[in-house]
Fold this protein.
Amino acid sequence: MHKRLKPYRIDRPGKLALKDFDPAAKPLSAGDKAADKERVADIAEGLARLQDNFYALRRDKLLLVLQGMDTSGKDGTIRAVFRAIDPLGVRAVSYRAPTAFEADRDFLWRHHRDVPGKGEIVIFNRSHYEAVLIEYVRGWIDAAERERRFARIVDFERLLAETGTTIVKCFLHISNMEQRKRLQERIDDPTKHWKFNPQDLEERKLWRKYHDAYEAALQKTATTHAPWYIVPADSKTHRNLMVSTILLEALQRLAPEGPPPNPGYKGLRVA
Amino acid sequence: MHKRLKPYRIDRPGKLALKDFDPAAKPLSAGDKAADKERVADIAEGLARLQDNFYALRRDKLLLVLQGMDTSGKDGTIRAVFRAIDPLGVRAVSYRAPTAFEADRDFLWRHHRDVPGKGEIVIFNRSHYEAVLIEYVRGWIDAAERERRFARIVDFERLLAETGTTIVKCFLHISNMEQRKRLQERIDDPTKHWKFNPQDLEERKLWRKYHDAYEAALQKTATTHAPWYIVPADSKTHRNLMVSTILLEALQRLAPEGPPPNPGYKGLRVA
């Protein structure tokens, strides 16, 4: 693994303070924004090439979980990181409030339904973690239920990992001030109005509670089979650089080459 | 519509002979392959920009149906045409033989399940048309059942169209000789072995029957609400150029701009 990525990878449960992670950090930066942008574009091409192998092998599965406060850049990350990738092998699933049908089932049901198949990359744009974030912050579940859910999430991710899924969980970590700036931009720029929802301002008032809920989730659900990455996300370019680097390393490990040839096809002639 | 595209758009049922369409034609070509390739890349960027509007508007739905003989380039088209597009708003669905669960239901069931939602582009990589192609060619259904299915397909597509879906159906039209060449390449190039299946040679023996079945499907299911495009596909570059041009025109019509601003947000300050 990239040496400077290591401190941001959390792969076992235990004490962790988000305040030890600077949302404005740029550990992978070359120190020049234009150069970083170019690397993001280069890595996107590299990802596309490796994904061809991954898809053709039809052997492993890759699940990317994206979580983060409002405006932390989940959509923007998907756009930048997967911009060169063949849509045949990638599926993005965006979760909103559960439908009545989904809410009638356990909190993992709809996420289990959507997991990647062999050779597939699936992006969870928000995820099963909302069941221990918004649902706890809003008081829909109590602390005891949240603990049970943490345990069930760890179990669920172990099932996926043991059955061939590489799980990469990214927490896009922005500062309170950066969120304010981004929300204000969505108001001030009329072309961004569609992204803005007055409800976002209500959510923002709960910033501290969300912050603590994320901290608890990271503490309880970081495992070797499903590690969290704390991605500093005040810089969009560096956020993209970090997420794409993490994925590139995963695909380099899983699919450095495509499937082997079949010796049985030698000499075959098509009529 | 692009003038030279018109003869390839079939939007009403009736007589049609595939032999009148040259699989090697290049009606949209600038006469230079490198220039055509560059235009495909340019259009892909244009599609990505318009898709941003389409996605943000969350109003219309777009369904692209891709059909064609083995090796006609369905996968390659998806890769080339959608290569710059944000995976959040595009979903590719590849159909194989129905599962037992799917086969227990009517032949449109699994396709209805997968239709695009508002603001979404869905690509059917093979589609409900397999139910009047392979199923007829292989003798699993008779001519009377095929007629009923043609009618039900027209009804189904009318439902989708009336409820806000723009339907674009592309038949990737290759010649018998081109298919032979491409199958042979998959055998001769070990890196392409994973794409080859000896079963493809059995299917190839049924070329004429598939040809006639496609002709019948085009005759029976071309409608104004769900037109077919006969895409000459012996040239991969021109095939990509034509499909991307058709989609560009659709998106230019549906989403030339993003959503309008919300005057109610004026002057709002984020705390």
Remarks:
- The mean pLDDT of chain B is 97.
- Chain B has one domain: 6-254.
